[in-house]
Amino acid sequence: MSFRSIQGQDRVKQVLQNSLRSDKVSHAYIFTGPGGTGRREMAKAFAQAIYCKVLPDDACGQCLDCRKVEHGNHPDLHWIVPDGSSIKIEQIRDLQKQFAYRASASGTKMYVLEQADKMTVQASNSLLKFLEEPTSQVVAVLITDNGQALLPTIRSRSQWISFLPMGRVQMKEKLLAEGHAPLLVQIAVHMAAGTEAARALIQTNGFAELRNLVIQLAKESLTRLPSALLTAQQKLAKGEFSEQLPQFMDMLILWLKDMVQLCLGSKDDIIYTDGMDWMTQQALSYPIDHWIACLEQAIETQKRLRFHANPQLALENILLRLKGV
């Protein structure tokens, strides 16, 4: 994987490639930003570029070292992921033991910590000592959704690399070129920060069905409320989609944003384009205050569900609000 193969994040690529060209690679980096923005791919491309024997600032993808990184068996590259819910001190100690040995011909050892913010306090303190006193030429990459969650002393000893959400137009073009269904692409790019995350959403079992369920419940709430309440109970609160309730709320919020726009007479950037006619009719049947109140309640419900609010009661309340009861 080369830097050229990664879509977007041009500023990040420029910073890393400049460090390679000038032979000023930092001993530690924090790759921080929302999931799906290519942090893991960038770390892999960076590792390949460091070990590549052909190109000075990128990976050729063909030399032995590039292929070893690609296949996950380069002796000087160590990739650490949480053991269960956290990265434990034993994992950091094992890493330190590995790094006590001399590197191979490359002369550089590298490690990548995924979800670095999930290190235990003990693991963080052990890593800090390792950052302060490396036993050899070492490059560390810490990948995290929230760099601020890392110890201040770790942050101060690392170069901060921010990954920004990719533009929706770019994401949409790439996913459509890959052959994904346009209706699913349209909603996925509004739910994800990068192409990788949007693609994963589209390929998730039940993603298309969940989108259809949003439309079904919205229609039933406005026309046959008792049926909507029963469907929500059977399929969301206790049924097959109960584990996907957060995604359902994301989709419902996007639907409500469409309704606000349609009520205001705007049809630009509508996400649920396949329901434009009936949605427009319903949107104009209520005042704009109604749709704004529904949207606000949906956002508040989403927050409350994160703190284990009763799913059935929360869903019933929002469906009742949709109907204006």
Helix content: 40-55%
Distance between the amino and carboxyl termini: 55 Å
Number of strands: 5
Largest beta sheet: strand ordering: 2-3-4-1-5
Based on secondary structure, the structural category is: alpha/beta
At the fourth level of CATH, the homologous superfamily of the largest domain is P-loop containing nucleotide triphosphate hydrolases
Largest sheet: 5 strands, parallel
Counting DSSP H or I runs of 4 or more residues, the number of helices is 15
Whole-number count of domains: 3
Order of helices and strands: HEHHEHEHEHEHHHHHHHHH
From the 3D structure, determine the CATH topology of the largest domain.
Rossmann fold
Shape: elongated
CA-atom Rg in angstroms? 24 Å
CATH architecture level-2 label of the largest domain: 3-Layer(aba) Sandwich
Low-confidence blocks of residues: none
Task: Write down the overall mean pLDDT.
Answer: 90
The percent range for strand residues is 5-15%
Please identify the top-level CATH class of the largest domain.
Answer: Alpha Beta
Pfam family, one: DNA_pol3_delta2
Keywords: DNA replication, DNA-directed DNA polymerase, Nucleotidyltransferase, Transferase
GO molecular function, one term: DNA-directed DNA polymerase activity
Domain DNA polymerase III delta subunit C-terminal: 242-322
Keywords:
55% helix, alpha/beta, 325 residues, 5-stranded parallel sheet, elongated, Rossmann fold, Zinc Finger, Delta Prime, domain 3
Summarize the structure.
The chain has 325 residues and is α/β, with parallel strands linked by helices. 55% of the residues lie in helices and 8% in strands.
